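Example record used in the benchmark description.
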Amino acid sequence: MKKASVLLVAGIVLGLFSVACAQEEKYPWPSWASTKYRGVELTFATVKTMHFPPDEHLVREVFEKKTGIKIKFELIPNAVLHEKLVTDFASGAGIYDLVEFGGNWIPEFVEGGYLVKLDPYFEDPRFPDLELEDFLPVLLDAKATYKGSYYAIPHQADIFLNFYRKDLFNQSGLVPPKTWDEFIDVARKLQRDTDGDGKIDFYGAGLMMERSIAGYMTAWMFLKCYDASMFDENMRPAFNSPAGRNALRMYKQIYEVSPPGVLNMMSHDLATLLIQGRVAQAPNWPYVGFLMNNPEESIIVGKGAIATLPGGKVDGRIVHGSMVFGWSLAINEGSKNKDAAYFLLNYLDSKEGTLRRVLPEGMVDPTRFSVYADPEVMKKYPDFAIVKESLMTGKVPPKIPEFHEVAMSLITNFQKALMGTLSIEKALADTEKEVDQMMRRYGYY
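Model output (structure tokens):
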């Protein structure tokens, strides 16, 4: 794995360097670009993910050289990202200038007074037009706006897709499941005992169910797939319902055909099971498509494929509920260099910056229509068509500051139902009680 990481980064560096140089002049650099902020130092707090190397090398090879601005990257693990950012925000120290985070935190950060409103920059003639109309609207809704104003810009799109072993599906005459019932049926047909010890060791399915962002988004997604609402029109919890029970019942059936330990598996753990040939299908983030075909890490190169996520069957129709996720860039209200930070944001998430980050390795899922329409991109990464299709029908979670707390209550009680310590009915009732108390405490009613 260490060797693979070295080779991967080396390929990214070379690819990004060539692409960046070839396209440098397409960005409409202001006349003052090389002088106005020369010598300014910015700290960019970014999350430790696979899309970090394209950001870093594009900044190093183009932005710093063109502007004279020095960028310090602080690479923060996802598990402590929220804590690190809030600590700096609340202190007012302004250690971080530009920040990257999961867009579902925008309401919380805005209500805390932590983020700079970006709308005035869009009207500022000093900076190139960011062409907001080119972003997928669902991403602007989910990852950029709050109460009618912009506080962030979508930097990396994410949505659940179903990754599956096309070789095994073909051998068994199976097709990618359209519903969760079909998903479970396929899982049962493909699971098997490979060493003859009487125990299943190749699993038909896997799903992120751990107590984290990915786990609670999976739980929320199942509610949406069965037409269960998180809240009613008065912001009272509404998921303790027949639809909610159907959602949790299906969630538990998938748990029963998943590998042991799935309640503690994060995205990369599930991806490792897939690329090491131990599971037949596993919904995950789009980056897994890259891992499946990386010969340094995967034993299923050429054997994997991607499909849209299954939906729930409700009254004869299929309901899809995949939650739109992804990463956003924003400016820390405590920054001493807000204009320079916006210049960096504007560059990285411009049409040209987005294209350059996407092309070399395909590890950045596009946020813009123009990139999905680019012939070179789509020829090189045809699976982006499935990413776009899924995003266009994706669901936006409730835009409330307390969503993280609400969702953690949901996944915690869902896990108890999966383990059998609570019945399905009791798990939903307990979650309803906890969320009701939260909403009262925060003054919603």
